[in-house]
Amino acid sequence: MEAAKKRGMQSVAFEDPPVLASWAAVVGPKEGQGPWAKDFDWIFDDYSIGEKTWEKAESKMLRETVKLAISKGNYQSRDIEMMLAGDLLNQIVATSFAAREIGVPLLGLYGACSTMAESLALGAMLVDGGFFNRVSASACSHHHTAERQFRFPTEQGIQRTPSSQWTATAAGAVILDRLGSGPRITCATLGRVIDLGQSDSADMGSAMAPAAVDTIKTHFQDLKRPVDYYDLIVTGDLGKVGMAVAQQLFVKEGIVPQPNYSDCGVLLYDDSQGVDSGGSGCGCSACMLCGPLLKKMVEGKLNRLLLVATGALMSPTTQHQGETIPAIAHAVAIENQ
Q1: CA–CA dist 304, 194 (Å, integer)
Q2: Domain 184-335's class?
Q3: How does pLDDT run across 42-75, given as a tens digit for each residue?
Q4: pLDDT, tens digit (0-9, with 9 covering 90-100), for 202-222
Q5: Which backbone phi and psi does 285 adopt, to 5 degrees?
Q6: Fold match between 6-177 and 184-335?
Q7: Separation CA 130–CA 133 (nearest Å)
Q8: Tens-place pLDDT, residues 180-197
Q9: Of the residues 64, 85, 223, 285, which has the maximum number of CB atoms within 10 A of its CB?
Q10: What is the pLDDT of residue 146?
Q11: Topology at the third CATH level for domain 6-177
């Protein structure tokens, strides 16, 4: 017996598409100086957010973003039946420490920078499947915690390469509800792990681009949708280098979604901010979705959005062992209905 909601090899279509009933985006100082400042709910003045460590600051940022999404939807914490969230820290401690104060059941997720799309896809499955009426989906990252864990503490002043990306200090949270009005998650495509041998941790965009293109191509095939179906296809955080690689692969695969294609890592900052290839981190696609992109959907400037969040599934351990960088991308279709 075939699964009724499965489409093709990797996709699902929802019979009762969950509503994005409420959302919130919180960012740090650098992100607040970028082109989308007016579209974020809260811009922190400093990276510590009143905490003693970067890690505590990251957890606070996620906690406050989820709480803000809850309050903006006129909900109480007890109305949220499940929290799906993740971050980049070891054992996703920013998430678990945030969840202990929110007080709802938690499914902690790790998809590297693809976590926001992963949480949305799984949350939509839980609601559409009838398991829960209302869940939150969220993700966060912090520039200084990620640099300390994956590269070098920023205090060391290590020179960055042009292909490197700036981990966003940002978080985004969405409340998915079985009832209500607003944009809906209509379908999702879950990605495969793709590894074409890239091993340079200062060029994660090139490592993730093949996974993004693979998921987008599969999405169109599984759902039998034309390549011009969406008003915008936006990848997670390929940055300028990865986006250029993806555009070449689009041509090779014959899907060519331009001009309705962009990347959150390219959009989040402007060229004057010194972020080299662009933004990265779980919070990159999370804040862009929960800030300017969903605002455009509410305003009717976008009606069909495909978010394809991308993740480099490496760790400091695998890098020290000389491993290459596996990557993954998950896609969620968000549509005004």
Answers
A1: 27
A2: alpha beta
A3: 999 999 999 999 899 999 999 999 999 999 999 9
A4: 788 999 999 999 999 999 999
A5: -70, -30
A6: yes
A7: 7
A8: 999 999 999 999 999 999
A9: 285
A10: 75
A11: Peroxisomal Thiolase; Chain A, domain 1 (3.40.47)
